[in-house]
Amino acid sequence: MTYKNLKKPFIISLPIALGYIPLGIVCGMLLNNAGLNPYSVVAMSFLVFAGSSQFVAASMLAHGATLIAIVVTTFIINLRQLIYSSSLANHLTEKNPLKIIAFSQFITDETFAINSRQYNDASWSDTDATLLGLFSNLHWVIGNLIGALFGKYLGIPTGVAGFALTAMFIALLALQIRQKSDVRLCVIGAFSAIAVYSFNQSGFSIIISTAISVLIAAFIDNLTGKAEVDDE
Amino acid sequence: MNNRIVLVIIGMFVVTFIPRILPTLLFSKYEMPKWLRRGIKYVPISVFSYLIMTDVLFVEQKIALSFANVKLLPALATLIVAIKSKSIGITILVGVLGYILYQYGMTMPPLL
Does B80 or A159 have the greater pLDDT score? Predict the structure, then answer.
């Protein structure tokens, strides 16, 4: 491992830093407000490394949610990692389980998006992909630490910080939309969310709503024969 | 650091670690079943639709479809920016700026 090996993944990680550091500052501040000291904020950011889940956990902790509700919600929000991990599995040539685990621990929405594109470049190795993940994780940890230590002096209004998260979710949704049926799925998901959330606002409403949305979308695709097309 | 927070961190680590490592470890050896691959591909859009809708449309747990809901129009503008730019950084910057401006406009006294 030389400086030259580190340089390329680091440079490619910089656009990710643009999003992770400011958002990490807000996240670290909210987690600190929710009762986590800077050490726990760093531990969580390093080990969990899941932006949306950490924001949701901060909000749930502040509202006194139970441990089970927080963990189950995190699990549901991060089920999408199964898809990213499955998709990236097609590119991996690494066979050493420990190295596969190191690579996989750094999978996020952003590293998935960038690695999927980078793997089209023949010179992009599994080690490069793992290093990209590691650098992204460091950007996230640094942002969170700054937020936990200095967040209260930065005076970021919670409404504004909250909307940064809303905007990130909207951007990640837009990145997922690739074809017409995806727009239909957005509408199905939206109506399912409104219907379920109107009746049930517990931590489980996200599970119920997602299950309904997935079943309806799968049913429609089966009727129109789209599911078979996608399998090819 | 209290015990509850340690448990939350460990719990969150376990449930984020498993969906990350399971497929790469498993599918480096075996083929993915068809039914799972079909269902799983609908999850990201469904989850993000849910997170956005419940965040933007509901104020104090009641549906709020009016201009008084300060997130509604800025979120719509953010969506347009997101679709056009396909960039997380630009979307967050423009979105937050729009939100601040809209909130400022709502609290400003009428001009006439």
Answer: B80
* Tokens standing for residue B15: 């449930």
Interface of B with A in 7-36 (CB under 8 A): 7-9, 11-17, 19-28, 32, 34
User: What's the distance, CA A187 to chain centroid?
Assistant: 21
Four-residue CA torsion sign, B88, B89, B91, B97: positive
Measured between CB atoms, which of B52, B71, B89 is closest to A18? B89
Element (H, E) at B63: strand B62-63
CB atoms within 10 A of CB B17: 18
| pLDDT tens digits for range A129-156 | 999 999 999 999 999 999 999 988 887 7
Beta-carbon separation of A67 and B8 below 8 A: yes
**Residue B79 and residue B108 in contact, taking contact as beta carbons nearer than 8 Å:** no
- Residue B67 · residue B105 · CB < 8 Å: no
A69/A7 Cα distance (integer angstroms): 41
pLDDT tens per residue across span A164-206? 878 888 988 898 888 899 999 999 999 999 999 999 887 678 7
User: What's the CA angle centered on A183, arms A104 and B77, to 5 degrees?
Assistant: 95
Whether the model pTM is above 0.90: no
Cα–Cα distances (Å) from A30 to A51, A169, B54, in that order, read 12, 17, 20
Identify any residues that bridge with B63 across adjacent strands, giving them in sequence order. B58
Contact A173, A186 (CB under 8 A): yes
C-alpha distances out from residue B23 to A6, A80, A101, A137, B17, Å: 27, 11, 10, 21, 11
- Separation in Å, CA of A4 to nearest CA in chain B: 27
Fill in the DSSP letter of residue B76: H
ipTM: 0.83
Q: What residues of A are in contact with residue B11 (Cβ under 8 Å)?
A: 67, 70-71, 74
**Coil, strand or helix at A44:** helix
